[in-house]
Write a structure and sequence with these properties.
The chain has 448 residues and is mainly α. The chain has 19 helices and no strands. It starts with a helix and ends in a 19-residue tail after the last helix.
Length: 448
């Protein structure tokens, strides 16, 4: 185990940040898109992974060149308005995402081990238990323990979901064609929106910012570390792309109805059981274990990483008010631990309520992260006075960041144009954002 961890040391943080962004929404979006459009849109998963790679590479280059996180740089160069706006956004993001992740863990565990009597009880108690266990591990274990547990969850997620994709016996020639020949099929006029949803659902939103804190934990602090970081990020998003393509392949072999992401995971498992003959029961349990690995690693990653963001904002705010030097952000600091407790405990209140409408509003609000991050990197990454002329964005980075910005602007346009002009808009709204996880109190557990 130690030897394996040593080999994975270079690619550890990249895998962590990519896996943290993979939640119930990614599983459901990939499966639903595959069920509707088939494997001809596998190329879209690769494009989405490329966009997220460019964003992560840009913020990493900024941090290694300037010695400050991208968030700290934004506060320094954009001032109080950015600081207050980001803090407000972070608080909303944390509450809705945390409640959604706890709910998703509870729903998946209800499918695996329904011990609390009803779907509502399983969602509530399993969600709380996952949250408390994550707090205990992070509070007492440190970064290295967190990394080891995450790698176990990620291994379960990756191996079991890809194994399920193999079990369903996909058409290899069709897969290769879907990966390298970009095609957008017309599904009642909604093929484009489903393809956009697939691109946007690869690899996280706000959690992308957390990569900078994780590379500090492993001692990467200078531009000499940039090549290793690029390899690290590429490996993480390659794994995410393979995972996303596996979900599209699984979905392409069965028929699914639209629903909340957490519910779709359970229905997908049951469909695997009934449609694959003798392989069905094995495929169902393999997939459910992988799904649990995905939602559990996402919850644990968010619990460990997002308090860094609050601690970073807190230190910048108090340093400006008190006119003192910023203290280093640490997992043992008081602001980090206070926010960790708040993140893990306060959203439990949402587990007993119907938050569909609020989560839909959040999904629209949350979709702002990626285009805003692209704009920031295009500004700061090309500002020689801020980053240094030798560290400015290379041409390929500017091209990909611009394409990502244009893509998410197009996605926002499609999400907001009148329904009469956009067929099947409701289906796009339900999948365009990975965190739009509606409450699911009626999710069945797969039949044994």
């Amino acid at each position: 185990m130690q030897r394996l961890l040593g080999k994975l040391k270079i690619i550890g943080p990249g895998i962590l940040v990519a896996a943290t962004g993979v939640g119930a929404g990614d599983l459901a979006t990939g499966a639903l898109t595959g069920s509707i459009l088939g494997t001809v849109v596998l190329w879209a998963v690769l494009v989405g992974a490329l966009f997220k790679f460019a964003l992560n590479e840009g913020l990493t280059r900024w941090q290694l060149a300037t010695g400050t996180t991208l968030l700290e740089g934004c506060i320094r160069h954009f001032g109080w308005l950015f600081l207050i706006g980001f803090l407000f956004y972070l608080l909303l993001w944390s509450f809705f995402v945390a409640s959604a992740l706890m709910s998703a863990c509870g729903v998946v565990m209800h499918a695996i081990w329904p011990v609390f009597g009803s779907p509502e009880s399983d969602k509530f108690y399993w969600g709380i238990l996952h949250s408390l266990l994550a707090v205990g591990l992070i509070w007492t274990g440190g970064y290295r323990t967190f990394e080891r547990v995450m790698l176990v969850c990620i291994g379960l997620m990756f191996v079991t979901v890809t194994a399920t994709a193999i079990i369903v016996r996909p058409d290899l020639s069709a897969m290769l064609n879907g990966m390298f020949v970009p095609t957008i099929p017309d599904f009642n006029g909604a093929g484009l929106t489903w393809t956009i949803a697939l691109i946007g659902g690869v690899g996280g939103t706000l959690t992308i910012l957390c990569y900078g804190y994780w590379i500090r934990e492993v001692g990467r602090c200078s531009l000499d570390d940039l090549p290793n970081c690029r390899i690290d990020i590429a490996a993480g998003y390659l794994m995410t792309a393979i995972f996303g393509m596996a979900m599209v392949v699984i979905g392409s072999r069965i028929q699914l109805d639209e629903g909340s992401p957490a519910r779709t995971i359970v229905l997908l498992a049951d469909e695997l059981r009934t449609s694959l003959g003798s392989f069905g029961p094995a495929a169902m349990w393999i997939f459910l274990i992988g799904a649990w690995g995905a939602v559990a690693s996402s919850l644990l990653g968010v619990w460990q990483s997002v308090p860094y963001l609050f601690a970073d904002v807190y230190e910048s705010l108090t340093a400006r008010i008190g006119k003192r030097e910023r203290r280093a952000v640490s997992t043992s600091s008081r602001p980090y631990r206070i926010y960790l407790l708040g993140l893990a405990l306060l959203p439990m209140l949402a587990l007993t309520n119907d938050f569909k409408t609020l989560q839909k509003l959040y999904a629209v609000f949350g979709a702002l992260v990626i285009p805003l991050l692209a704009i920031i990197l295009l500004i700061l990454g090309n500002w020689s006075k801020a980053i240094g002329s030798h560290c400015r964005n290379p041409l390929w980075s500017n091209i990909v960041l611009t394409l990502a910005l244009l893509f998410f602007c197009a996605a926002g346009y499609l999400a907001f144009i009148p329904p009469k002009m956009q067929p099947n808009k409701a289906s796009f709204d339900s999948t365009v954002n990975e965190l739009n996880i509606a409450e699911c109190v009626d999710c069945p557990s797969p039949s044994p």
